[in-house]
Amino acid sequence: MSLTPRVVVVTRRSEYDEMLATHGTRGQAAFFLSTRGRDIAEVEERHRRLQRAIEVATAAIPVDWRRGVVERSDVSRFLFSPDDVVLVVGQDGLVANVAKYLDGQPVIGVDPEPGHNAGVLVTHAAGDVGDLLRAPGDVRERTMVEARLDDGQRLLALNEIFIGHPSHQTARYDLRTPDGGAESQASSGVIVATGTGATGWCRSVARERHSPLALPTPADPRLVWFVREAWPSPATGTTLTEGELVGTELTLTVQSDRLVAFGDGIEADALSLTWGQTLSIGRSEKVLRLVARGAGLADR
Questions:
Q1: Which residues of 181-199 are buried (b: 16+ CB within 10 A; e: fewer)?
Q2: Which DSSP state fits 253?
Q3: Between β-strands 278-291 and 182-187, what pairing exists: parallel, antiparallel or unpaired?
Q4: Residue 188: which pLDDT band, with cuts at 50, 70 and 90?
Q5: pLDDT tens digits for 126-148?
Q6: What is the pLDDT of residue 253?
Q7: CA 69/CA 102 separation, integer angstroms
Q8: Which is it for the CA torsion 80, 84, 85, 87, positive or negative?
Q9: What pLDDT digit, counting tens, does each position of 279-300 carry?
């Protein structure tokens, strides 16, 4: 480890910041919210909690350590170093947003609003950061999913990858499963999820259709996949609509003018798929290294 480690603090603008950027002044933002039956005081209080968590967390970084700060919208352009420690202050989704841009760096998730966020990935309080940086402890790995296009483009995600039409029209493609199954399909798209994603969108799909599939845990190398609303027709089938991937890949060959594949709900960072291209989706060799409760990093 470097004699002077770097802690990179990842944040995102609060709703209050976004309101000011849109409406210009606090008074205009307050008026707009009042027309929607909301009080700006609640938005301001959540903003203060976020700022306080950032202040407490950054104050705990040792004075002789280097530090950097990056906002969510700039993460894709930020150059992370191999020895960085990534300190995410915000919602669980912010950890997923940054995970695809890392390569083994440990992540500390700080929840600025305990009880408001789910706290699945942001499991620590801001006041814990000092101990987490100094005391040796446990860094747990979470499985990630990867999509590879036949032209060499790649996409990583922590929760799930969605493949479908960019405007949510019918997606047409040929699906091939690891056991040799093949079917032409027309559907609302395909989801391939990890154990981390199994607590969100994937779980909703599984519950709605009463799927017998056992969903994976966060560290489980298994992935699960679901086809959304497959449509039966003379040319398309509905027999291959869910399954699991254990060291194997699901393959789709595009039969539409354009489809997209994006991860963790970030549509702006997507692969664009055209007619005849083939996409393979499976477990990534990369993992998210998430600092667990009681863990630390000084002696890693």
A1: eebebbbbbbbbbbbbbbb
A2: E
A3: unpaired
A4: very high
A5: 999 999 998 756 889 999 999 99
A6: 97
A7: 15
A8: negative
A9: 999 999 999 999 986 544 544 4
CATH class of 144-286: mainly beta
Find tokens 């603008």 and name the residue: 13
First to last CA, the chain: 7
User: What string of DSSP letters covers 122-173?
Assistant: --B-GGGHHHHHHS---EEEEEEEEEEETTS-EEEESSEEEEE-TTS--EEE
pLDDT band at 265; cut points 50, 70, 90? confident
Q: How far apart are CA 110 and CA 7, in angstroms?
A: 13
Contacts of 250 (CB under 8 A, 6+ apart): 175, 176, 177, 178, 190, 192, 225, 243, 280, 281, 282
Give me 66's structure tokens. 């280097």
pTM, rounded to two decimals:
0.87
Q: Which tokens belong to 42?
A: 């609640």
* R_g over Cα of the chain: 21
- Which pair of structure tokens corresponds to residue 86? 């990534």
Q: Start-end ranges of CATH 2.60.200.30 in the chain?
A: 144-286
Q: Distance between CA atoms of 204 and 118, rounded to whole angstroms? A: 16
The number of CA neighbours under 13 Å toward the Cβ of 299 is 6
Residue 75 CB neighbours (<10 A):
20
Among 249, 248, 175, 245, CA closest to 216:
245
Label residue 77 left, alpha or beta by phi (over 0 means left) and psi (-120 to 50 means alpha): alpha
